[in-house]
């Protein structure tokens, strides 16, 4: 890792191509302010845009965020609706600003659960952004075990009778990008919560108590510096 003169901003290289974020703590952020949980998600969505922009500025080429899990449907309808509204607004903005943002959008998860209009919006967003530079994966109605089971189904349907690791990798929702180098979870919990289980095999982890809406540029600099202080041995010496 280098530091740009004057700004002290880290500049990342190919060792940190892909960062994944578990954006946890929106509800607690709102509670601390006696606000409804929905306000926490709105603040989380705002920070998501800032974090994406900042990571892109640092030179990170691929970013994955856990926006909505297969388990999140258990939340009250008004909260689910609020998160879906924020996502839908983000998709509309991302499509409108596709040239300025230079972001290639991918949605990870089973989109079949969404109404046809939402599915069409998602497909269109992926289509219009497909030649852009920065890859942004949004995990939506996503669960890693379901993803692996789905990959197995795909391989069976394609007639495979023997399966290598690469076959599974290429049948996952993340087939278009390398595994995450770093997985960051905000909000203080020390778990993966069914996120990228296959892809996380050699990822570095960073857990912070900071609530997602409060994750700022200086802490991202710290996380990046911490990543570069680690030795990745991939099982070797
Ligand atoms: C976890 O915090 C967060 C979520 C389940 C939703 C994440 C959604 C957003 C950041 C907004 C929409 C996203 C995009 C990409 C525009 P929590 O509610 O579990 O927080 P808590 O643990 O404090 O209750």
Explain the overall architecture.
By secondary structure, this protein is α/β, with parallel strands linked by helices. The protein has one domain (14-228): 3-Layer(aba) Sandwich (Undecaprenyl pyrophosphate synthetase), CATH 3.40.1180.10. It contains eight helices and eight strands. The protein has helices at residues 26-32, 37-58, 77-96, 98-101, 116-128, 144-157, 165-171, 217-228; strands at 2-3, 10-11, 18-22, 62-69, 103-108, 134-142, 182-185, 204-207. The strands form two sheets. It has a six-stranded parallel beta sheet, sandwiched between helices. Helix 5 links the parallel strand 5 and strand 6. The protein starts with a strand and ends in a 9-residue tail after the last helix. Farnesyl diphosphate is lined by residues 23-28, 41, 44-45, 48, 65, 67, 72, 83, 86-87, 90, 138, 187.
List keywords for this structure.
8 helices, six-stranded parallel β-sheet, two-stranded antiparallel ribbon, Undecaprenyl pyrophosphate synthetase, 17% strand, binds farnesyl diphosphate
End-to-end Cα distance? 22 Å
CATH architecture: 3-Layer(aba) Sandwich
The helicity comes to 40-55%
How large is the radius of gyration? 18 Å
Bound molecules: farnesyl diphosphate
What are the segments in which pLDDT stays under 50 over at least 5 consecutive residues? none
| Largest β sheet strand count, sense and barrel closure | 6 strands, parallel
Quick one: CATH superfamily?
A: Decaprenyl diphosphate synthase-like
- What series of H and E elements makes up the topology? EEEHHEHHEHEHHEEH
Alpha-beta content class:
alpha/beta
Q: Write down the overall mean pLDDT.
A: 96
Q: If helices are DSSP runs of H or I spanning 4 or more residues, what is the number of helices?
A: 8
Q: Main sheet: which strands, in order across?
A: 5-6-4-3-7-8
């Amino acid at each position: 890792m280098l530091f740009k003169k004057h700004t002290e901003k880290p500049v990342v290289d190919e060792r940190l191509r892909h960062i994944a974020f578990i954006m946890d703590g929106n509800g607690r952020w709102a509670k601390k302010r006696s606000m409804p949980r929905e306000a926490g998600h709105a603040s989380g969505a705002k920070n998501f845009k800032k974090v994406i922009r900042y990571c892109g500025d640092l030179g990170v080429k691929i970013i994955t965020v856990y926006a909505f899990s297969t388990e999140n449907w258990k939340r009250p309808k008004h909260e689910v609706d609020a998160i879906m509204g924020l996502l839908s607004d983000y998709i509309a903005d991302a499509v409108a600003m596709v040239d300025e943002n230079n972001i290639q959008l991918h949605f990870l998860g089973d989109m079949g659960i969404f109404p046809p209009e939402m599915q069409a919006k998602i497909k269109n967003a992926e289509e219009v952004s497909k030649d852009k530079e920065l890859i942004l994966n949004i995990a939506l109605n996503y669960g890693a075990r379901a993803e692996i089971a789905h990959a197995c189904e795909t391989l069976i349907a394609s007639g495979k009778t023997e399966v290598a690791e690469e076959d599974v990798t290429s049948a996952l929702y993340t087939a278009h990008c390398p595994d995450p180098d770093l997985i960051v979870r905000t909000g203080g919990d020390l778990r993966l919560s069914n996120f990228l289980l296959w892809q996380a095999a050699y990822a570095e982890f960073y857990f912070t108590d900071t609530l997602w809406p409060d994750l700022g540029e200086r802490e991202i600099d710290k996380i990046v510096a911490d990543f570069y202080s680690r030795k990745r041995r991939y099982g070797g010496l």
